[in-house]
């Protein structure tokens, strides 16, 4: 493999500082995920540019060996300062962890990039970031091929399941689940979110008191199908009804053309 320099543009979805002062970043770009190191970056101007959720243009150098590409330069192309607000940050962090877990390095994924960028914009601007996170989590999962089977009970295959699956986050029939059925809006959301546009889902938010059940199911589903996502720990207490923001979203706009 020959050495080369390349320019890429993407959003920082993961950032780690090593004891040596290097910054290791993972970017989600329209050409896929990219991992690179800014050597000694923590002491230079790159430190503030290579921040989580920043949209950056980077010049990277890939050495002749198969080691990590290094960041030579970085310019800030866009930032969403409101994502630093605690109630938005936790959701943005969860989306970034999802994107990191769901999409592979080198895998071309223009659509994933657009969806993720739209999710961050929505989380930054919308009055109801929790709802943005619920809708876009399901959309990201679906794009990566993880789709909840809402047609049949996950255990006995009976049609029209409406009860939560406390183990796998799927849907169960009344005979297979010991939990009460989802309420109407939450059930309708689970059945429609994948085929519906993001805009349509945003216009019909599930009432906050029904959301904890949706978060619990999502957490179980992701844990079983994808693996451990650390952000749940800071997020799940927020999903309690007392915290959920009841703000109106009828006039809200998500800047994404996601399917
Ligand atoms: Zn069943």
TrEMBL record:
<dbReference type="InterPro" id="IPR012340">
    <property type="entry name" value="NA-bd_OB-fold"/>
</dbReference>
<comment type="function">
    <text>Involved in DNA repair and RecF pathway recombination.</text>
</comment>
<dbReference type="Pfam" id="PF11967">
    <property type="entry name" value="RecO_N"/>
</dbReference>
<dbReference type="GO" id="GO:0006302">
    <property type="term" value="P:double-strand break repair"/>
</dbReference>
<dbReference type="InterPro" id="IPR037278">
    <property type="entry name" value="ARFGAP/RecO"/>
</dbReference>
<dbReference type="InterPro" id="IPR042242">
    <property type="entry name" value="RecO_C"/>
</dbReference>
<protein>
    <recommendedName>
        <fullName>DNA repair protein RecO</fullName>
    </recommendedName>
</protein>
<dbReference type="GO" id="GO:0043590">
    <property type="term" value="C:bacterial nucleoid"/>
</dbReference>
<dbReference type="InterPro" id="IPR003717">
    <property type="entry name" value="RecO"/>
</dbReference>
<keyword id="KW-0233">DNA recombination</keyword>
<dbReference type="GO" id="GO:0006310">
    <property type="term" value="P:DNA recombination"/>
</dbReference>
<dbReference type="Pfam" id="PF02565">
    <property type="entry name" value="RecO_C"/>
</dbReference>
<comment type="similarity">
    <text>Belongs to the RecO family.</text>
</comment>
<keyword id="KW-0234">DNA repair</keyword>
<dbReference type="InterPro" id="IPR022572">
    <property type="entry name" value="DNA_rep/recomb_RecO_N"/>
</dbReference>
<keyword id="KW-0227">DNA damage</keyword>
<feature type="domain" description="DNA replication/recombination mediator RecO N-terminal">
    <location>
        <begin position="5"/>
        <end position="75"/>
    </location>
</feature>
């Amino acid at each position: 493999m020959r050495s080369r320099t390349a320019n890429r543009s993407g959003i920082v979805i993961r950032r780690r500082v090593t004891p040596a002062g290097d910054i290791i970043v993972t970017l989600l770009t329209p050409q896929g995920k990219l991992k690179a190191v800014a050597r000694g970056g923590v002491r230079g101007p790159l430190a503030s540019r290579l921040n989580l959720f920043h949209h950056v243009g980077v010049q990277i150098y890939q050495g002749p060996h198969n080691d990590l590409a290094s960041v030579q330069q970085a310019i800030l192309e866009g930032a969403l300062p409101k994502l630093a607000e605690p109630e938005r940050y936790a959701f943005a962090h969860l989306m970034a962890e999802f994107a990191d877990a769901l999409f592979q390095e080198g895998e071309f994924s223009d659509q994933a990039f657009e969806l993720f960028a739209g999710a961050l914009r929505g989380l930054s601007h919308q009055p109801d970031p929790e709802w943005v996170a619920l809708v876009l989590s399901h959309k990201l999962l679906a794009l990566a091929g993880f789709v909840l089977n809402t047609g049949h009970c996950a255990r006995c295959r009976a049609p029209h399941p409406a009860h939560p699956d406390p183990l796998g986050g799927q849907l169960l029939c009344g005979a297979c689940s010991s939990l009460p059925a989802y309420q109407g809006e939450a059930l309708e959301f689970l059945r429609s979110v994948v085929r519906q546009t993001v805009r349509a889902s945003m216009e019909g938010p599930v009432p906050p008191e029904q959301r904890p059940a949706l978060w619990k199911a999502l957490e179980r589903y992701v844990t079983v199908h994808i693996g451990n996502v650390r952000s749940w720990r800071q997020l799940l207490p927020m999903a309690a009804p007392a915290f959920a923001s009841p703000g109106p979203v009828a006039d809200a706009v998500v800047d994404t053309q996601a399917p």
